Amino acid sequence: MKRVLRRSLKLPPGGVDFTSNDYLGLSRSAELHKMIADAMAALPQKRNGSTGSRLLSGNSELVEGVEQKLARIFQKESALLFDSGYSANLAVLSTLPQHGDTIIMDELSHASLKDGARLSLATKWNFRHNDLADLRKKLDSAKGEKWIVVESIYSMDGDECPLDEIISLANSFSAHVVLDEAHTTGLGNQRKIDVAVRVCTFGKAMGIHGACVASSSDVKNQLVNFSRPFIYTTAPSDHSVVSISCAFDFLATNTHLTKELAERINYFTSIAGWSRSNSQIQVLIVHGEDKVKTAASHLQEKGFDVRPILSPTVKEGQERLRICLHTFNTKEEIKALVDEIKSLGL
């Protein structure tokens, strides 16, 4: 019988953070915390909760104003807020592709995208990771409206999708691209991207919580009218909405943070012989569950918060140490971590 991994909740082990998604350190920023508190205090109406779904009592000028702001930032006609990137992905893929359409997603797509596709009445296919030839082959056989699903950076490998080539291929087949930007939102991607849907997540580099779907007004209307994750959930609180607005204002005046993160990434890749990513997500494959768990435990004992990634999150035999880099990681800390990993002889 195949052994099933049993997960459990544990408190963080402490040590230098090489695990969290707080890439720019915004979640620990005292300045951003004060900006949010001041903005909340300035609201004319003080509400602890939104009181209901957006279609009932939960809508407000505040949330509509922030959505308009996000649409400008991501250079789309409109934006629609969700409580999380998971909910946003679920909403997009369970609503937009219809019966008779075809969803073609990268095989390494996030679980939320796969779950959304499962809820859709469309045909679901995978294409080999970042394999444009395989994607073209699938597109050539697809029926109905074609929906290509990719991520800007893949969370378990840290590699980028060939986005420009995928957009060009999509255009040649009149296909729609759904781009999950969970691990790039806030990292210099506030530019115009010619895709049908951008799912932008705020719980990682932006240091807060929530997500938005940036799209055309027609797509937004489809989601408002037919997306169950939007219709049947309580609207985000004023605090969540204000936090989103403040985080983007803070980042706009602290552009040095993305440069500092790039410096940390460049330093890590220059001293780690196993690096295969140019992003803030670095991976070392350590075959075998016991071996990778032992390695992670050793690093934690040495004062580094590094976690093992196990099956079924990754394929069996592809277990790994996943190292997330941040602006607040010093070069001394990065070098000490790399030296300790090298000493393990993995």
Walkthrough of the structure:
- Helix 1 crosses helix 9 and helix 3 runs parallel beside helix 4.
- This protein is 39% helix and 15% strand.
- The model has no long low-confidence stretch (mean pLDDT 95).
- The strands form 3 sheets. Strands 2-8-7-6-5-3-4 form a 7-stranded mixed β-sheet, with helices on both faces. The chain has a 3-stranded antiparallel β-sheet with strand order 9-12-11.
- With 346 residues, it is of the alpha/beta class.
- The chain is globular.
- Helix 4 links the parallel strand 3 and strand 4.
- The two termini are 29 Å apart.
- It has 2 domains: 102 residues, Aspartate Aminotransferase, domain 1; 203 residues, 3-Layer(aba) Sandwich (Aspartate Aminotransferase, domain 2), CATH 3.40.640.10.
- It contains 12 helices and 12 strands.
State the total count of DSSP E strands.
12
Q: Write the CATH homologous superfamily of the largest domain.
A: Type I PLP-dependent aspartate aminotransferase-like (Major domain)
H and E order: EHHEHEHEHEHEEEHHHHEHEEEH
Helix content: 25-40%
The major β-sheet equals: 7 strands, mixed
Strand neighbour order, sheet with most strands: 2-8-7-6-5-3-4
How much is the average pLDDT? Answer: 95
**Count of individual domains:** 2
- The amount of beta strand, in percent, is 15-25%
CATH topology of the largest domain: Aspartate Aminotransferase, domain 2
Low-pLDDT segments, ≥5 res: none
Instruction: Assign the structural class, choosing from mainly alpha, mainly beta, alpha/beta, alpha+beta, or little secondary structure.
Output: alpha/beta
Cα(first) to Cα(last) distance is: 29 Å
Write down the CATH class of the largest domain: Alpha Beta
Number of helices: 12
User: Per CATH, which architecture of the largest domain?
Assistant: 3-Layer(aba) Sandwich
Query: In angstroms, what is the radius of gyration?
Result: 21 Å
